[in-house]
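QA checklist item 7 of 12: single-chain prediction sanity check.
[x] sequence parsed
[x] length recorded as 74
[x] structure emitted
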Amino acid sequence: MKTISLTESACQRLASCREGRTFSQVIERMIPLKGTIEAAFEAVGNLPDLSAKDLDELEKAMNAARQPLPAGWS
């Protein structure tokens, strides 16, 4: 057993994903083992579903990233 420190906001995010699980179970479910693509795909499949608002925000961010950079930035 190890003790870790989290910011209040990080702890709240982690707690919101618990759904009856321990913090260790949430971390193991959401963070893949380093270096394995299978673990990465499994972790992506275990992520919680996004709300319609979150999907909208993600789409806006992706569209903004597709825009050309302003002069002087490229």
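[x] summary fact logged: The chain has a mean pLDDT of 85.
[ ] second reviewer sign-off
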